[in-house]
Amino acid sequence: MTKMFKIALPDGSVKEMPEGSTPADVAAAIGPGLAKAALAARVNGEIRDITRPFESDVQLSLITTRDEAEALELVRHDYAHVLAEAVQNLYPGTQITFGPATDDGFYYDFAPTPEHGPFTEEELPAIESEMRRIIGANKALIREVWTREQVRDFFVKQGEAFKAEWVMELPEGETITMYRTGNGDEAWIDLCRGPHLASTGKLDPNAFKLTRVSGAYWRGDPKNPMLSRIYGTAWLNKKQLDAYLIRLEEAGRRDHRKIGAEMDLFHLQGEAHGSVFWHPKGWIIWRALEAYMRRRLDAAGYNEIKTPQLIDSKLWVLSGHWGKFRENMFVVPDEVPGTEEGKPVITGDAELMALKPMNCPAHIQVFKQGITSYRELPLRLAEFGCCHRNEPHGALHGIMRVRQFTQDDAHIFCTHEQLVEETKRFCALLDSIYRDLGFADYQVKLATRPEQRIGTDEEWDRAEADLETALKETGLDYVILPGEGAFYGPKLEFHLQDAIGRTWQCGTLQLDPQMPQRLDATYVGADGEKHNPLMLHRAILGTFERFIGILIEHYAGKFPLWLAPIQAVVATIVSDADSYAQEVAAKLAEAGIRVETDLRNEKINYKVREHSLAKVPLLLVVGKREAEEGTVALRRLGSDEHQKMMSLDDAVAMIAEGAVPPDLKP
User: Fold this and answer.
1) Which residues contact 132 (CB under 8 A, 6 or more apart)?
2) Is 461 labeled as catalytic in the residue annotation?
3) Which helix (H) or strand (E) holds 352?
4) Where would you tag: which of 6, 146, 401, 507 has the fewest CB atoms within 10 A of its CB?
5) Contact criterion met (CB below 8 Å) for 237 and 253
6) What is the band of 144 on the pLDDT scale with cuts at 50, 70, 90?
7) Among residues 88, 95, 356, 360, which one is catalytic?
8) How far apart are CA 21 and CA 4, in angstroms?
9) Please, which pLDDT band fits residue 305 given cuts at 50, 70 and 90?
10) Does residue 60 sit in the same domain as residue 73?
11) Does residue 581 sit in the same domain as residue 621?
12) Catalytic residue among 254, 389, 403, 449
């Protein structure tokens, strides 16, 4: 008698299916439309191939293109495999390594033959054509379970040294799967955990594009061979791809490095790799943003402090960072006893110091100096703290990812009873600041306990419940990120969306009951006993460098008037108006406006074009008539209005009102 399995569906119904049946069979039993649309299956919460047979009674849901996040990851994974097959078809002897899905596509790393050398972007069109041929062939993707030895022997025979090396490092007893693309002797086979779509024909041949080629070391180690990494972008359909390419083109126009150079805001150079040289105009933006944040924090009850940058390694050992973060810290000896041939000699007895990569242990030291009673809590300590992290060269990106950065950091010390209210206060503050800065659209994510963590399950239960309660009381929508919390506690992530739809994770609130215990921070409770406070690590901007980079790209350099480095330029039509232009500029400066004059002997159209490219928000044009009448011709950056004639006093009043930061407006 055939064994039957009970398949529970999301609508509560149960289908009985014979042993050997698959999720694809269930989809077909429900209807031909679902059978065609289904891409993969979630079986007891695990995403699997739609053609993988059931092994027992299960909970089943089918994944279609409506489940966009899961569907995108699946198709991007498959495009990577099709890329690898296409490359090996076109360039025999090329070795394959690995190729994961990414946030906007996929990549695959290859070891080209010595005769061929590294791949180039000129070869991408031919590879794309071969990928489309493979997709059009609608080859089945078949999952097979092999032993480690079988996999190693297969790859050794194929001359695939990298795969043969990798598979022998997998844990003994782990299920190892190979995927066969197509049937017969010409099938292409690769080592992969899966899952995959049922066939290559499930991919849209017009929904991907190979984008670039770069170098990458095998396993990320510079001591290992250099590979060729081919990147691509992939989507569910051509419409999504076209929208992405338009967005990518717009992102190129908004690149903060390009605009930063055009506006003379900052520069980067090799002698200070990973640090920013801020120019006067860029530093004006920084100072305006910092002053705004300082006012907001002062009003919200924060106490600003300043802590050392160079701290003894003993504190980092106690805090736990020395064991978990040591490779990312810049470490220096406390004392250099002598030199040898002009080079420092460090003895084994030298004490080690480290430039701080974060502020939290230092803030606990301030807390420990004076807090004695629960009546003094909550305590909110804020610092615009300069930190250093030894990021890999390849990870650095303009001012978005640097080695020296300044956080808008703060730590809230509170009791369990105060946690929900403090979380709500923080969410309200963040919401208001994001809206002031032009980011009304953002998403909140609650990251819960990871597998590797410290603390008891009871502590985690309470911490997660408290954060979720606070979120519900704020009325903010949120999603759960299972297993994405910090090792010491759950956290909230705030992902803002910019003008062209990109998301950036900036704000965070991390609940930490552990570090106050490790560093012996205590207060006396109402019961007369000593207790460890809870510690909330929180940031809104994240870092000033990265957030200014985001602002540059969000506004494409056309900052709100209060943030613009130069808010107005007074430009003359004729030299007879020079003295009047200086008078106009003086009145604007007196009203607190950042203003410059342009008295050059150039045509006014040339001046207008130049200051428009420099993203100056307001241009006040004056000539002989304006000087006689006490007026200005006002032009706004990006406005369809050609110009507006105004009296000087009205123009000054209007500009001064517009230049007020959002938090100071009546």
Assistant:
1) 205
2) no
3) strand 352-355
4) 6
5) no
6) very high
7) 360
8) 9
9) very high
10) no
11) yes
12) 389
pLDDT per position as a tens digit, 240-282: 999 999 988 998 999 999 999 999 999 999 899 999 999 999 9
Among 256, 380, 453, 537, the active-site one is: 537
Burial of 80 (0-12, 13-18, 19+ CB in 10 A): buried
Tokens 């290559």 map to which residue? 200
Domain count, the chain: 4
- Helices and strands (H, E) in the chain, number of each type: 20, 34
Residues 450 and 587 in one domain: no
Please provide the average confidence, as pLDDT, over all residues in the chain.
92
Q: 216 or 333: whose pLDDT is higher?
A: 216
CB atoms within 10 A of CB 322: 17
Give the pLDDT confidence score for residue 640 in this predicted structure: 59
Cβ atoms of residues 141 and 183 within 8 Å: no
Catalytic residue among 88, 407, 510, 514: 407
Same domain, 37 and 130: no
Question: Among the options 76, 196, 256, 491, which is catalytic?
Answer: 491
Same domain, 243 and 297: no
Label residue 326 by pLDDT band (50, 70, 90): confident
Is 237 found in the same domain as 114? Answer: yes
Catalytic entry in 209, 411, 538, 546: 411
Give the end-to-end CA distance of the chain in Å, rounded to a whole number.
81
Given a cut of 60, whether residue 285 has pLDDT beyond it is yes
Q: Domain of 45?
A: 4-64
Contact predicate 477/445, CB 8 Å? no
The whole-angstrom separation of Cα 176 and Cα 148 is 7
- Considering the domain architecture, whether residues 528 and 619 belong to the same structural domain is answered as no
Minimum mean pLDDT range among 140-144, 264-268, 498-502, 627-631: 498-502
Residues 111-129 have a mean pLDDT of 96
Would you call 411 a catalytic residue per the annotation? yes
Assess contact for 554 and 497: CB atoms under 8 A: no
Collapsed DSSP state (helix, strand, coil) of residue 520: coil
At 267, the amino acid letter reads H
Assess whether 495 carries a catalytic annotation.
Answer: no
The dihedral over CA atoms of 297, 300, 303, 309, expressed in degrees to the nearest 10, equals -30
Q: Give the model's pLDDT for residue 394.
A: 76
On the CB side of 202, how many CA atoms lie within 13 Å of its CA? 25
Using CA atoms, how far apart are residues 283 and 183, in angstroms rounded to an integer? 63
Q: Find tokens 């003086």 and name the residue.
A: 586
| Mean pLDDT of the 170-185 span | 87
Q: Could you tell me if 96 and 197 lie in one domain?
A: yes
| CB neighbours of residue 539 within 10 Å | 20
- Residue 654 burial (10 A CB sphere; 0-12, 13-18, 19+): middle
pLDDT at 616: 95
Tens digit of each residue's pLDDT (9 = 90 or more) over 441-466: 999 999 999 888 878 888 889 889 98
Only one residue has tokens 């990569």, namely 357
How do 631-636 and 644-647 pair as beta strands?
Answer: antiparallel
15 classed as catalytic: no
Is 407 assigned a catalytic role? yes
User: Which CATH number is 411's domain given?
Assistant: 3.30.930.10
